[in-house]
Amino acid sequence: MEEQTKGDSVTGLISACSTGPALSSFSGGAPAPLNDGKCKVLIVDDEEAIRDLISDLLKREGLVPLVAMDGKTALQQLRAELPDAMIVDLKLPDSDGLEILRQAKALDEDLPVVILTAHAKIHGAVEAMRAAAFDYLAKPYDHQELVRVVHRALAQRRLSLKIKQISQQTNAGHNLTQIMGPSESIGRLIGDLNRVAKSNFNVVIIGETGSGKEVVAQAIHGSSPRAKGPFVPVDSGAIPETLFEAELFGHEKGAFTGAAGCKPGRFEQANGGTLFLDEILNMPLTAQVKVLRALQEKSIFRVGGTRPIKIDVRVLAAGNQDLDAVVTAGRFRADLFYRLNEFTLRIPPLRQRKEDLLYLAKRFLDLTNQELKKTVHGFSEPAIQALLQYPWPGNVRQLRSTIRRAVLLAGEMVTEEHLDILHENREARRTASPPAKAQTATGAEHSLKEIVAQSRTVVEREVLTDILRQTGGNKARAARLLQIDYKTIQSKIKHYGISFHEQTS
Amino acid sequence: MGNMGEEPLSQAEELAAMKVMAGDTAHELRNLLAICSSAAQFLMAEEITPEFRRQCAQKVLQGIQRASGILDHLAKYAQPSGREESP
């Protein structure tokens, strides 16, 4: 009786199979398949003839069949090939299908698994397993039915991946709001960012120093189809001009003095992912030509190499001033700029985003409280006014360090006294040495050690001065607040020549 | 008839063994039927190469041969003499 119904559907299949593409077309309208346009389906069955026959059937549907004869091979295939669906026999030589189903779900929770069983009746066990399995079919199976189930499984796979992708993007957007602020201009930026992230456009990110260009670049990468690939940041300003090309493109053994082995460059490291070129205005003109060629040819040559290496890289570039002007002035190649600037994202400076400023100040206060185990509960009104009026040339980065230092110094509340930006204005700094930031800017003349030592001097002196002002010159209390002993604070005060007359407060 | 301890037990054992065998046999036959059925469905499709047609026919034949083997074994088991041979 069963055979008769099978017979009918077989007749139905004849036309369907002979017009293979027509059958496939009922999955039409679905989004583009995964994996280079072809879906992989893993067939696990100990019977060779069954594996062959189902493989042939799936090939006719334009799918890529993979086969495994036992549980062990099946798991290897699952790890190595990342199939989009799996058809598994319930009874295998080394384990049963349910065990493989469980392990496959542990590897890839969205993998649809179709159980193919030669068990006479659908037992309770099979019913239970239906919860985890996508569907089940009984042997002998009907071709048309099997094909239909597989296409449905693949459609569900696409759907669950899509949902995952969307929820990831929403999360990314949410996190970005947390990091960058709730203002309308940041909201618009995040909207643009999400739209361009999905494309393969090269993007130029323009923003002042400290405004979060790398954060934006990472967010683009994170919500792009390349999210699983590498994100490779390159600070063009930090690489000496002579090493620039070797850094970007790698080098072969003996390409130049000191090139002992061959080394892949940043472009190769970023293959399949995103390369983030920060401070592109610092890129040497010779390197600019080569970057342009790399983008045009989609391949690179290592320094000293003769073979082109194919690369698939999306490039995000960032600069801290209006690049257009620099391009017009001829300091940056226009052809490269246009190649990079398929889309522009501008991060507005913090001083134009008062809403974000206060939100971020509170956020940094909370974070620093957590870090230092303090309970500073807010800002005094004059402190808020001071924050709002300050121009923040160092943007979010500067705000963060300002708030961190203020929270370190503050007791119950951050007041103007704790904000170093004010002392700067007031010329109350009284320190002979220039601020640490200026030191780094002219850093080329000093060794790193010298710069760090000088900066530490500046910071220590500043902190000590501030805290003594806060304690009214009480050295013992200052020492306790800074968690150093009295002797140390005394010697430091002497060393830095800080004069504070003890006051009775 | 005085041997009350063994006779009923061996019958129960035999029954249990038969159940297992029936289940295994059904399972194997279904697998072979699946091969034959699938190959036959391909044979009924019009657009297949002569080589693939030959392979499918071969699979049907092999499936039938293996199924016959299983049935022969069953038949032997069912014979009164064969039944006595097996402990």
Describe the structure.
The complex is a heterodimer of chains A (505) and B (87). Chain A is α/β, with parallel strands linked by helices and 505 residues long. Helices cover 52% and strands 11% of the residues of chain A. Chain A has 3 domains: 2-161, 3-Layer(aba) Sandwich (Rossmann fold); 181-348, Rossmann fold (3-Layer(aba) Sandwich); 351-496, Orthogonal Bundle (Helicase, Ruva Protein, domain 3). Chain A has a 5-stranded parallel β-sheet, sandwiched between helices. A 5-stranded parallel β-sheet of chain A has the order 7-10-13-6-14. In chain A, strand 11 and strand 12 (309-310) form a beta hairpin. In chain A, helix 7 (143-180) packs antiparallel against helix 8 (184-198). Chain B has one domain: Orthogonal Bundle (Helix Hairpins). Chain B contains 3 helices and no strands. The model of chain B is unreliable at 1-5 and 82-87 (pLDDT under 50). Chain A binds chain B through residues 6, 10-11, 13-14, 17-18, 20, 47, 49-50, 52-54, 56-57, 91, 118-120, 138-143, and chain B through 23, 26-28, 30-31, 33-42, 44-47, 52, 59, 62-63.
The stretches of 5 or more residues of chain A where confidence is low (pLDDT under 50) are 1-36, 425-443
* pLDDT averaged residue by residue of chain B: 82
Helix content of chain B: over 70%
CATH evolutionary superfamily of chain B = Signal transduction histidine kinase, dimerisation/phosphotransfer (DHp) domain
What would the CATH topology of chain B be?
A: Helix Hairpins
Spans where pLDDT lies below 50 across 5 or more residues of chain B: 1-5, 82-87
Instruction: Report the end-to-end length of chain A measured between terminal Cα atoms.
Output: 102 Å
Q: What would you say the CATH architecture of the largest domain in chain A is?
A: 3-Layer(aba) Sandwich
Highest CATH level, the class of chain B:
Mainly Alpha
Q: Mind describing the biggest β-sheet of chain A?
A: 5 strands, parallel
Using the alpha-carbon principal axes, give the shape of chain B. Answer: elongated
> Any idea of the CATH class of the largest domain in chain A?
Alpha Beta
Shape of chain A: globular
Radius of gyration of chain A: 32 Å
Query: What is the chains' assembly state?
Result: heterodimer
Number of domains of chain B: 1
